[in-house]
Every structure is written in structure tokens, then in C-alpha cells.
């Protein structure tokens, strides 16, 4: 028997599922629930744009209203493209991506799988070396004209799978921590009352502390390396891109030009295999100009 859909379910079915958080909620589902509860208005989703608002208005029996500009603007869909020569493999973008569209490993180059990218932009701010560009890839098409229902369904499934995976990883980490705590407590409990009980506990407690300290030191070292790299790039005139107050089109052009300039400076030769990676048809970077 098919479960009866709630209003939140039906609202969620109409959302683009880019999981971009521009509506002010952590994902599409919480926004759908907020609209259903009357806590959010139905004009807060820039990726859905005017058509998305019209769909929600029809479902809710309300008038079509303009997109709330506080949540952003309706625009052509961007695609994240990583400059592979600048990537330091910190994994921060991968952790930020809500649909697992980025692949890579610590200290290795990362790459966006173009077919899976929703254009949510969430990977851009965490990158410590500003090596992620987001050129538009849908020409003049915006909103639902730039994003199909099947793409939305796929993004929703990937987001749900990611949520389940993260929950499993959290549970496993908590189970490991509990096992460590239990293991460290046992010798202390087994110690003779006359023996200083602190001996066993003191011998074990620093292990957990050491692990935490080591983790903090690794993160600190990675941040320091990123900072130094940023400074070196700035000294060479290859500093971070100014992404403030420019349109998406202008930003895409700036990003493409900056990436080419940096690459020429980095490689020191004109025969770089990625010399036009942000332009259509380049390999091995994804082709950002190809509509999907
Ligand atoms: S696509 Fe973005 S703005 Fe629209 S509901 Fe989903 S998370 Fe919110
Ligand atoms: S790669 Fe970046 S822009 Fe694309 S879906 Fe992931 S976080 Fe969003
Ligand atoms: S955040 Fe930037 S530097 Fe770090 S892995 Fe991603 S693209 Fe590379």
C-alpha cells in the first residue's frame, strides 16, 4: 500500500533538490516542512525561480508572488570546476558538497563530477586556495528551464544517501569512542584498591588526549600550509579572486581568465594540458559549457 503523502512531502516533490541552503534552511526537506507548517514563505527558493514559485502557489492555492530577493536571484545554473593545479587536496570542498559530487583523497587533487553537480556553490567558500570556479552552463536558461525533474530526483537520492552514510559514520565513530572508553576504564577498575587507581587511568587517558592533540596538529598544519600557499600565490600576483559584487557571467569570465593566467605562471610553459580547462571541450576537466 502506498503511504499517503503529507503536505511537506508534496512541497518537497516540487523543489529543485539542489540542497543549496539559499532558502535559509539546511536542505530542501526542512524548507518544505517549514512551508507546510507556515514558518516559511513559498518564494524563498532561487534555484526553482519563478516557475518553482508558481508550482508551489498552485499546490498551496495561493497567488504567484515574486522571489524574495533576500534569498538570492534566479540565474543560469552554475557548475563547479576545480583548478586541479592549484588544489592542495584538503578535502574541505568534498565535505561541504551535499550530493557527493566531488571525488578526491587527502592531499590528492579533487575533481567535480559534472553530471552530479547541482550548482549549489557550497563547495566554494571552504576552499582555502580559491581554486573552485562556478561558471554558468545553461546559457540564458534559469530556474526549472535549467534543471530537469530527473536531475532533481537524482540529486535528492544522492543527498539522502549521503545523509544515511554520514549517520552510519557518526554511529561507528561513537561506537569506537565508547569502546575506547570502556577499554580504558577496565584496567582502572581491575586495579587493587591499595594500588593508586590513577596509575592505569593516567596511563590510558593521555592516549585519547594524544589522538585529539594529534588530530588538531594535523588540521593546524594543513591550515598553515594552505595559508603559506595563499601568501606565496598573492606574492606572485596570483592571489584569491575577488568574488564580491559581480554578476555570475562576469565572475565566470574572471574565473576563466584567472585560471589560465595562474596556470601559465604555475607551469611556466604554454603547453599545459589544461591550458583551456574552463573552456568548452577541455580535458580532463569537466566541460562546463555543456548543457545537461
Ligand atoms: S533548492 Fe536550495 S533554496 Fe531551493 S529549497 Fe532546496 S535548499 Fe532551499
Ligand atoms: S560540486 Fe560544489 S557546486 Fe557542485 S553540488 Fe557539490 S558543493 Fe554544490
Ligand atoms: S577545498 Fe579547494 S584545495 Fe581543498 S580539496 Fe577542494 S578544491 Fe582542493
Layout of helices and strands:
Layout lengths: L6 H7 L14 H10 L11 H12 L20 E2 L9 H5 L5 E2 L7 E2 L19 E2 L15 H42 L7 H38 L12 H20 L25
Antiparallel strand pairs: 1-4, 2-3
GO molecular function: 4 iron, 4 sulfur cluster binding; electron transfer activity; metal ion binding
Protein name: Electron transport complex subunit RsxB
Keywords: 4Fe-4S, Cell inner membrane, Cell membrane, Electron transport, Iron, Iron-sulfur, Membrane, Metal-binding, Repeat, Translocase, Transport
Q: State the major sheet.
A: 2 strands, antiparallel
How do the strands of the widest beta sheet line up side by side?
1-4
Q: What distance separates the N and C termini?
A: 35 Å
Helix/strand/pairing class, anyone? Answer: mainly alpha
Q: Please report the total strand number as a whole number.
A: 4
Bound molecules: iron/sulfur cluster
Order of helices and strands: HHHEHEEEHHH
Shape: globular
Low-confidence stretches: 194-206, 239-247, 266-292
Strand proportion: under 5%
Count of DSSP-assigned helices = 7
| Mean pLDDT figure | 79
